[in-house]
């Protein structure tokens, strides 16, 4: 028995030695690890105290769980540091955000699907009810979840005329949840929301301006940033607590909807999105995006 033990021990020690030599060799031959690039960049201007939060998930800033988690953490950080305001924009020249990452909803294990949706719910709520002023500087296309992010800010400046924005969910065979609808309705009104959502219409920037989906159209990102700063500056003289409570009051319906229905909303999402028919629709939509 002792012999067996000794030889087993020798064997394992030998294996450990071999493994550590080969690991070191592998380390020498490996490239240095790629730097971890944040999916969300935050830069706070020293003078104005305004934070520029830039979505940075090429190519199209589709919203997956890690990006939404980082965005939620960035907003919490600004909240904790009593931020003067936030401008949400994109590192891409052509896309603000392509909306929810369809790969997070297609053929996804249930626990991941659930984590994805709850992250979206909580990040959305923290943006929608943030105490500081928020502006979306929409410097590219902004369909579906991208439009939701923009609608959740207090002011929207969009680079035009060639980019589009809207809640196009029905075109994909999916349904914009009630809190998406509330956001849209509060910005463009009941009638326009019904027309826009049932048809899944994407609006060009000039069309969006006409129905009030965006507040202003500019011709490049620099102009968008300048206008966003200007919007935030007007709050310098407004007492922050009065501003925050007023915003919460105006946005009460959306806030209460989410607070009271988080679990039901998750359940409805899970039931709907896992239906074979919806999965097939998402598969076909992904294929058309890839074929382009
Ligand atoms: C209570 C609950 C009730 C109901 C719940 C039920 C259902 C759930 C509702 C869920 C709501 C969802 C909202 C969404 O946000 S769904 C996403 C909708 N998004 C879109 O329709 C946009 C699709 N993308 C585009 O139109 C174009 O990509 C875009 C105009 C943004 C940019 O065009 P461009 O030419 O610049 O890029 P592309 O070549 O098209 O794309 C580059 C690569 O990126 C991939 N891609 C694009 N968009 C997405 C996406 N949203 N998700 C995942 N991947 C995406 C695209 O396939 C290309 O990939 P490769 O070919 O390079 O591999």
UniProtKB/TrEMBL annotation:
Domain of life: Eukaryota
InterPro entries: ClpP/crotonase-like_dom_sf, Enoyl-CoA_hydra/iso
UniProt GO molecular function: delta(3)-delta(2)-enoyl-CoA isomerase activity
Listed GO biological process terms: fatty acid beta-oxidation
CDD domains noted in UniProt: crotonase-like
GO cellular component labels: mitochondrial matrix
Record carries keyword Hydrolase: no
Chief place of localization: mitochondrion
Pathway(s) this gene product operates in, as recorded in its UniProt entry: Lipid metabolism; fatty acid beta-oxidation
Keyword terms: Acetylation, Fatty acid metabolism, Isomerase, Lipid metabolism, Mitochondrion, Transit peptide
Cell compartments where the protein resides: Mitochondrion matrix
Subunit structure, as described in the record: Homotrimer.
Function, as annotated: Key enzyme of fatty acid beta-oxidation. Able to isomerize both 3-cis (3Z) and 3-trans (3E) double bonds into the 2-trans (2E) form in a range of enoyl-CoA species, with a preference for (3Z)-enoyl-CoAs over (3E)-enoyl-CoAs. The catalytic efficiency of this enzyme is not affected by the fatty acyl chain length.
Protein name as annotated: Enoyl-CoA delta isomerase 1, mitochondrial
Species whose genome carries this gene: Frankliniella occidentalis
Upper classification of the organism: Eukaryota, Metazoa, Ecdysozoa, Arthropoda, Hexapoda
